[in-house]
Amino acid sequence: MSEKLSHEEFVRKAIVSLRKEGYKGIHTVYSGFNNAFKKYFEGENPVEATNKLAHEGKVIIRPVKGGVMLYLPEEAPASQSLGDDALKKMGLE
Q1: Which entry of 61, 62, 84, 92 is 20 to 30 Å from 23 by CA?
Q2: If DSSP states are collapsed to H, E and C, what string results for the chain?
């Protein structure tokens, strides 16, 4: 391998390369992303790295059963606010 990718480059490449047809994101556990990240970055924590990227607005994280989904910001599905929906149904919004 030549020069290593940055965390952001690695995550963006993983999202595009590992997602299944018809999906815009990847599951960090089931796609093998977490293990690949640890191997490529020699034991670094993928959760810390992806949380930092999410905080910077470079990726979108959505919690799902068994882990999280990672999306590119321009491809992430709209966030649904269950609280807003509940208030609307209750006639309080």
Answers
A1: 84
A2: CCCCCCHHHHHHHHHHHHCCCCCCCEECCCCCHHHHHHHHCCCCCHHHHHHHHHHCCCCEEEEECCEEEEECCCCCCCCCCHHHHHHHHCCCC
Cα separation, 36 vs 51, whole angstroms: 17
Q: At what angle do helices 46-55 and 33-40 cross, to 10 degrees?
A: 100
pLDDT in tens, 39-79: 999 999 999 999 999 999 999 999 999 999 999 999 988 76
Can you give the pTM of this predicted structure? 0.81
- Angle, nearest 10°, between helix axes 46-55 and 7-18? 100
Q: Mutual orientation of helices 7-18 and 33-40 as an angle, nearest 10°? A: 150
- CA quadruple 68, 38, 47, 11: dihedral sign: negative
